[in-house]
Structure formats: C-alpha cells, structure tokens
Specification:
The complex is a heterotetramer of chains A (about 250), B (about 200), C (about 220) and D (about 60). By secondary structure, chain A is mainly α. Chain A is built from 7 helices and no strands. Chain A has one domain. In chain A, helix 1 runs antiparallel to helix 6, helix 2 runs antiparallel to helix 3 and helix 3 packs antiparallel against helix 6. The radius of gyration of chain A is 21 Å and the shape is flat. In chain B, helix 4 crosses helix 6. Chain B has 7 helices and 9 strands, in the order E-E-E-H-E-E-H-H-E-H-H-H-E-H-E-E. Chain B has 2 domains: about 130 residues, Rossmann fold; about 60 residues. Chain B is of the alpha/beta class. In chain B, the strands form 2 sheets. A 5-stranded parallel beta sheet of chain B has the order 6-7-8-3-9, sandwiched between helices. A 4-stranded antiparallel beta sheet of chain B has the order 2-1-4-5. By secondary structure, chain C is an all-alpha fold. In chain C, helix 1 crosses helix 6, helix 6 packs across helix 9 and helix 8 runs antiparallel to helix 9. The relative contact order of chain C is 0.15. Chain D contains 2 helices and no strands. The chains are: A mainly alpha (about 250), B alpha/beta (about 200), C mainly alpha (about 220), D mainly alpha (about 60). The interface between A and B is small, with 4 and 4 residues.
C-alpha cells in the first residue's frame, strides 16, 4: 500500500521540485552557451586545414552526442516505466523524444552544412551519417506510435517496447551500416581521420556539450511538467494547484 | 477458490468502480450486475487477467492470478462478447481449433457431438459466415460442452440466443454448477439457474 | 499447439487465396517498374537487381503485416490466445511462421524469375534465393512486433511501416550485399552467416517482444 | 582578437553561409522548442481556465439571481 501511495504522490512532488529546477538549468544553459560561443568564435584560432568552416563543430558534435545519448536515456526511462509500472518515468521518456529528435535533426543539418564546403557535397553515405539518419527515423517512429495511441498507459508501454527494440537494434544497425560502407567505399570521403584539435577548440566544444546538457535537462523538465498536468488533470492535487494559482 | 479484494478499475480518466470484493466457492454462481458502462466487461476482463486492476488483487486458491499464468488459464474459460469464431472456417474446424487453443484437443466425433447438442447438426461443414448471429453464438458456446475447466467467465452469454437456446444454456450451467464448477456471468436477460450458492455483484 | 496455429493460419490463407496473390503481384509489379523508370540498360539493371528485388520484398512483406493480427483481434480470437494455457510467445511464433509461409515463401520462389528479367547470372540467382530464404523470416518476425504494437490503431498501416522499416535495414544490407558480393566475385558466406545469425536472434527475441506488445495492446 | 572587423566576422573566411546557416537553424530550433512547450502549457492553462470560468459564471449567476 505504501508503494502505491508513493506512486500516486510522486508526480505531484516531482512537479513542484522540477518547477524550481527548470530556471536553474535554463540559466546554466544560457551562461554556458554564451561562454562556449565566446570561446568558439573569439578565442579558438582559425583551423589551418578547414579555415573558419570548422566552427560548425561547436554545435555539430554536441548535437550528435546528445542525439545518441538522449535515445539511450529515453529507452532507459521507458524500460523502467514498463518494468516497474511507474508513470513518471514513462512520462519522462515521452518528454525526451522530441528533444532527442531535434538534436538528431541538428546533427544532420549542421553535418550537411559542414560537408558542403569540406567535401563538396551536402551528403555522403557515410556510416555515421547514415546511422544518424536511421536514429532520426527511430525517434520519429517512437513519437508517431505514442501520438497514435489514445490511452496514455498503453502509449507508454507500447513506446517502451519499441524504444527497447530500437536499443537492441542500434548496435546491429550501426555495425551493418559500417560494413556496408566499407564495401562501397568508392568516391566517398572517409570521416575517420579527425585532425588534431587545438586545446581551445576542444575547450569550446566541451563547454557547448555541457550547455546542450543543461538545455536538454531544462527543456525536458519543462515538457514533462506539461505532460504531468495533461495526464493528471483529474487528480485532486492538480485541482489544488489550480486553485492556488487562481488565488495568486 | 476465486477471490477478489478491493478491486479498483480505472479506464482513462474515469474510475469505473472501487473497493469491489467477492469470493466464489465451488458450485457457486456469481452474477455481475450493473447498468451499461458500469464496468461489467472490464471486471470480467480483469478476472481473466487480460487487464490489471488499478488496485486490489485477484487470487485463485490463494495465489495471485498474475503470477499463476498458464496454470490459471488451464482451469478457466472466458467467453467475451466477441465470439472468437473465424468466418472462413467451418463450424467443426472452428470448434476444434478454439478448443485446441484452450488446451484441449478434441477429435472430429467429439466436436460433432457437441455441435449436435447445441442444435447445430447438419451445419457442421458450413463456413461460419453463412450462419446467423444466434447460430454463431451457439458455435462459440459449444466450447463450454467440451472444455473441462472449473471456472467459466461468460460475458452476456445469452445475447442473440432464442428461447430454446436459453433453455439449453440453463441446463448446461446447472450441470456445470452441479459438478462443482463455478460460473461468473453478466446478463441482461432473466435466467433461472439453481446453484449451491448464488451471489450478486452489483457495480455502481 | 504451435502446429495448430500454423495449420489454422494456412487454412485461412487457403480460403482467402486472393490476399496471398495480391502480395505476390505487388512484389512482381514493383520489381518490373524499375527498368521502366531507369531505362533498359542491361549493365545498370544487373547492378541494381539485388537492391531492387530486396527492397520490393521488404515492401511486399510489410504490406501484409497488418493482417497478421487484425482479423484475430476483431473477431476475438486474439483474446482467446492471450488467455490460452499455452505460451503466448509460442503462439506468436506460429503466427509469424505462418505469415512467412504465406507471404515470404512465394516471394522467395518468385525471385529467381524476376532476377532473370534483370539478366542476373545463374549463381547470383541462387545466392539471391538463398539470401531471401534466410532474410524473409526475419522480416516476418520483426514485422510481428510492429503489427502487435499498432494493433487496432487508426492509420496503423502507415504507422507500421514507419516503425518497422528502420529495423529492416540490417537485413536489407546483408541480403542484397550477398548478391552483390557474389557478382563482384567476392565471398558471400559472411553475408549469409550474418543473415542466419539475425534469423536466430529474431527467432529468440521477436516472439517474446511481440507477446509483450500484444498484452499491452489488448489491455 | 582574431577578427579584424565585424564584416570579417560575418564573412567567416568565405564560409559565412555554412557557419551562420548552422547556427541560425540551431537557435531557431532551440527557441522554437521552448516556445512550443510554453504554448502547450498556455493551451492547457486556457483549457483549465475555461472550465474554471464557466464554473465561476454559474456561481455568479446563482448569486445574482
């Protein structure tokens, strides 16, 4: 009985706790973003090979990392939600998906804009690019499945199964795309030899990675709060909250 | 034997019923009553383990049915308002396949005997799609004759049945209850079934 | 029991033969459309053939996924399967295999004939058939998960392709890769063994995931 | 300072289109996402507000009549 009570109360306490956390992370993200951009544009020197075009790295790499990392986090929370029947973790997974998809899109977009001046083409069927594209498909599949199901609990569980199947498949997909790529290594450019990076470049990039982290946390919490309100609209605590807000 | 304690059913945002408890012993009949939308079908689906109660527990011989799994399903027969018959298969094929699915393989003769009892003789090799609603219902109910399960959970078993078929069902239920079986059913029709004990479960 | 499910699904397919032929003709038409769109140049067609046949097989197999559970869902048989004393994973495996026998096997048998249209050498035809033989059951097994997840949803048919196609990619790569490797006079054993490995992995995991999805979808 | 002038900064050594194209789209996405969530929240609040208002109106009517 205690567990059930905990389950019921936890979205409520999480809601108020996260409400305090969103602005903190948002400000951290803004500060880190400004710092990272400053280092990226005004401190890091011009790359002797790529000229100024390399400055795309400061968003490209964080976006690519976040896209993959967020998928794992999403699958993790979805799996927890499925295994322990906790609503909050499932809501968290639902909230992560759009942000993950956005980062995946950004990684592809900036990759294309970086590729054009460097290799003369917007797109190469390189293993990494192709896997990133497939990752975008997986995100879109997850979101469309959840959007198509009216019953939120069923949406949570169905999404969780899909996310977990995706997680099992990602290494297989990545490995097969890599294999396919080496077989077809024709005119395409190899992206594997990364040029040695100046320390300031690395610093700038890492700051931007942290900025993306903070941003993701802030936005995901913000979204999960809305989802909680939408889903728990019939509960007593939401009504209480509404009354308090109206009184203010 | 079968016990439910403090069951709560939530569908979407709405709570259909709460704190429903009951217990059913061998030979007992339980009628689940209530107006439309009061959660009768949800209740029966819960008792089958098709859905889980939001709170509360259903146990068979003292063990929760969710942890019994196949063991529970081999002593229980559920008939929902969907007949579970395939339009393209013949009457005999339908009965044999649905029995096999429920864990009991029967041969052609046994199947024909059961169908005859249900008043479907002469139609055994017709595809189900040419039958009327009432006849389809009889095909589905024929499974009750051949199955040897202890607990029957029936959702509106009398829907679409004519007077003679209702009589037939009444006999079938009484025989089952007389042999120490248990029946949980919903119905909107009047039916007189004598049982060792009859309980009524009223849902708000 | 497992055999009962296969037998039943095959019997149903026999009673509705047109469904089987629709899938098969879809496959044939898609493969035959490609030369019309890219030109009849034989050398190019030969290099394209494995990819075209495989993509068409993927689409054809996917097209029939919706039927795998939906009719059972609508008439209540699926409910009975969920409360059957038999293991649901096993029943699901039976259904996926029946789906493969009904849609996959005709594709496998048809593929060599379509390969001839593309002027594939005899050995490549052989490899194509073997790769399809190993790959199409994987498509049915993975597809079953998608079909179970989208059960009873509006727009389920389009949704299932969105969910399932990305997961088909490894099978596509190694299936058509095997034929290409053979035509380039490289070894194709590795491709086929990997397809075999995919088959084994999906035989173990897919029915289980499908069973879980069905329970979620039916609740 | 690496940049001699603002115009040089915006030119990005001839790669301005690519660099700024990346950054502008990124910021558009980030800001768009935040706005979308706020909008979703506002719609929800409005929805609640409507229910709340209608309740209030009923009570108002009761008191006035």
């Amino acid at each position: 009985m205690a567990i059930n009570w905990f389950k019921y109360s936890s979205p409520a306490s999480f809601y108020s706790l996260s409400g305090k956390m969103v602005p903190i992370f948002m400000w951290l993200a803004v500060v880190l973003l400004i710092a990272g951009m400053y280092v990226g544009f005004f401190v890091a020197p011009t790359d002797f090979q790529q000229g100024e075009a390399y400055r795309i790295i400061f968003i490209h790499v964080p976006a690519a990392w976040m896209s993959m990392f967020l998928y794992l986090v999403m699958a993790f929370w979805a799996g927890i939600g499925l295994a322990f029947n906790t609503r909050l973790s499932s809501m968290l997974a639902t909230a992560i998906a759009p942000t993950g998809a956005m980062f995946t899109f950004l990684a592809l977009w900036t990759g294309a804009l970086w590729g054009k001046p460097m290799w003369g083409t917007w797109w190469v069927w390189d293993a990494r690019l192709t896997s990133e594209l497939i990752l975008l498909f997986l995100y879109i599949g997850f979101m469309s499945l959840q959007a198509a199901i009216d019953d939120p609990r069923r949406a949570d569980k169905a999404g969780a199964i899909l996310a977990l199947v995706g997680v099992v498949n990602i290494p297989i997909i990545y490995f097969s795309v890599q294999w396919w790529n080496t077989l077809h290594q024709g005119a395409s450019v190899s992206l594997n030899q990364a040029p040695a990076m100046a320390t300031t470049m690395l610093t700038g990039m890492l700051i931007m990675v942290f900025a993306s982290w903070m941003y993701s946390i802030a936005v995901i919490l913000k979204r999960v709060r809305v989802i909680i309100l939408e889903r728990e609209s019939h509960t007593a605590w939401v009504a209480e909250l509404r009354k308090k807000e109206a009184a203010r | 034997m079968l016990q439910g304690s403090n069951l709560v059913c939530v569908r979407g945002d709405r709570r259909l019923f709460k704190d429903v408890s009951f217990s059913l012993e061998p030979g007992g009949l339980m009628l689940v009553l209530g107006p439309n939308g009061s959660g009768k079908t949800s209740m029966l689906r819960m008792l089958c383990g098709l859905s889980n109660p939001a709170f509360g527990e259903i146990s068979w011989c003292g063990t929760a049915i969710s942890s019994l799994g196949g063991e529970y399903y081999s002593v229980m027969t559920y008939m929902g308002h969907l007949s579970g018959t395939k339009d393209d298969l013949t009457v005999v094929e339908n009965l044999r396949i649905s029995s096999a699915l429920a864990g009991l393989e029967i041969n052609e003769t046994e199947a024909r005997e059961a169908l005859q009892y249900m008043g479907l003789s002469g139609r055994e090799t017709l595809p189900v799609k040419v039958l009327s609603q009432g006849q389809r219902r009889r095909v589905a109910l024929a499974r009750l004759l051949v199955c040897q399960t202890k607990l029957w959970i029936l959702d509106e078993p009398l829907a679409a049945l004519d007077v003679s078929a209702v009589k037939l069902m009444q006999g079938l239920l009484e025989r089952h209850l007389g042999q120490g079986g248990m029946v949980i059913m919903t119905t909107h029709q009047e039916i007189e079934v004598t049982a060792a004990s009859t309980t009524q479960l009223q849902l708000a | 029991m497992f055999l009962w499910v296969i037998k039943r699904d095959l019997l149903l397919a026999m009673r509705r033969r047109s469904d089987v032929f629709t899938t098969l003709f879809f496959f044939v038409i898609v493969v035959s459309l490609f030369p019309l769109s890219v030109g009849p140049e034989m050398n190019m067609l030969r290099t394209m053939a494995p990819g075209v046949v495989w993509v068409a097989a993927l689409l054809a197999s996917m097209l029939s996924l919706g039927r795998m559970f939906s009719s059972d869902y609508l008439d209540g048989t699926l409910e009975q399967m969920l409360i059957s004393p038999h293991s649901l994973s096993l029943l699901v495996l039976g259904k996926a295999l029946a789906h493969w026998l009904v849609t996959g096997v005709p594709l496998v048998l048809m593929a060599p004939i379509l390969g001839i249209q593309y002027d594939l050498p005899v050995e490549a035809l052989f490899v194509l058939t073997i790769s399809l033989l190993l790959g199409t059951p994987v498509l049915s097994l993975i597809g079953a998960i998608g079909a179970a997840l989208t059960l009873g949803l509006r727009g389920g048919g389009v949704l299932v392709s969105l969910l399932v196609l990305p997961l088909y990619i490894p099978v596509l790569i190694f299936g058509s890769g095997a034929v290409e490797a053979n035509m380039a006079e490289l070894g194709y054993d590795a491709h086929l063994s990997l397809l075999g490995a995919f088959l084994l992995v999906s035989l173990v995991f897919a029915p289980w995931a499908t069973a879980a999805s069905l329970r979620v979808s039916m609740e | 300072m690496i940049w001699e002038s603002w115009s040089e900064f915006f030119a990005m050594g001839g790669y301005g289109v690519y660099v700024w194209g990346s950054y502008i789209v990124t910021f558009a996405c980030v800001i768009g996402e935040v706005l979308l969530i706020s909008n979703r929240r506002r719609t929800l609040d409005k929805h609640y507000g409507l229910i709340h208002d209608s309740n209030k109106k009923e009570t108002d009517n009761e008191t006035t009549s």
